[in-house]
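Hey everyone, long-time lurker, first post.

I ran two proteins through the pipeline my lab uses and got sequence/structure pairs for each. Pasting them in order. The first:
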Amino acid sequence: MTEPCPGACNTAWRTIPPGDPGRPEPVPGEPVWCPRDQARIRRQFAELDILGALRAFIGDGHREQAASPSRGNGHPPSPSPAMDDVDELTRWAFSWKDAYLDLHPSWKAAQTYAGNLAEARTETIAWLCERMDGLLEAPFAADFGREVTWWHRSLTTVTKAGTGRHRKLAPCPWCGLRTLYETDGDDYLACCNPGPPACRARLTKDEYTGWAQQAARAVQPA
């Protein structure tokens, strides 16, 4: 049996108790993520190299520290948080390349040192992009997709690249307040009502469109 997609498309299914008439059917994974989330993960992962370059370029004025020792290896931390983030992104990409190679042991002998033609980060992300179909079907596909989303959101926030935040006109269908926001780069809308209790509603863009149309009809005069 196909498991439900772990993305935001199933937020309502995960949060509404079983047996509640308002609980929708889960969106199935194909085989792990639904097609909409697969497209989002592909796009976000492909943008990570550009976001990494932006982080290095408009970081904190310490670009010359790119070769400084990394954190956690017994040396003093780099004075450049921006380059630390870029180094960590590179190590993260390496870790997923290693995880994928573990599924294909015969490929390991043919691997070359990354960084010959471009930044090691760039080459590794490009290598993984070409194997995205396999990554999204691998046993670790759910964790991989979640981490891609985290990195993309983290880097777009710190670089201010496409992180516009827009409040929507229709109220939240859960708490009734006008606290639904759409953030550039995300494929869902989130309620920012802090409560108490905090509302943690999430809607896909299609769900919001349907809800907004329903809400508009409800306020029209008879």
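...and the second, right after it:
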Amino acid sequence: MYAIVKTGGKQYRVERGQRLLVERLPAAEGADVALQPILYRSEETVFDREGLAGVRVTARVLGHVRGEKLRVFKFKPKRGYKRRTGHRQELTRIEVTEIATGPAKPPAKPVRAKQGDGAAKPAAKPARAKQGGDAAGKPPAGTARAKQGDGAAKTAAKPARAKRAGSAEKPDENKEKGSDGS
């Protein structure tokens, strides 16, 4: 009996008691994690969605490790471009503890209190009062905010660019000739 599971974007063929390294899982050491089955093989093969709903693959986290260092070297000839970097993948060592089949468990539904129980409803939040201005969202009078038609916003315009040093001394030859070309 074996199963093919998917974790970390990869697929693994696992059997009960097998240990393997997978991409880092967000679980503490010693915790049990459920792996997503893609195929289950015993006397019969199960790979349809309804059949896989009853398959459970459980693994125990043995520890978190880092993989071996991969050296990455980038090079472009005749351009003087060389880059050397490295990478170590974060991994989790797991041991498959159980591969079981059975009827699919329905998802647990949260228990909701009925209105007739005498359970009190939470009070509505009070409306926040605005700190000035009117209902249209305008700021209160006397604020330093400039209106659109006000000229105060235009006073912070950029200064004019300085001309190049040689442009003031040499007059433009095209302007002296005039438009008739004489």
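Reply from user beta_strand_b:
Welcome! Quick read of the second one: The beta strands are 2-7, 10-14, 19-23, 32-41, 45-46, 55-66, 70-76, 81-87, 90-101. Residues 2-101 form one domain.
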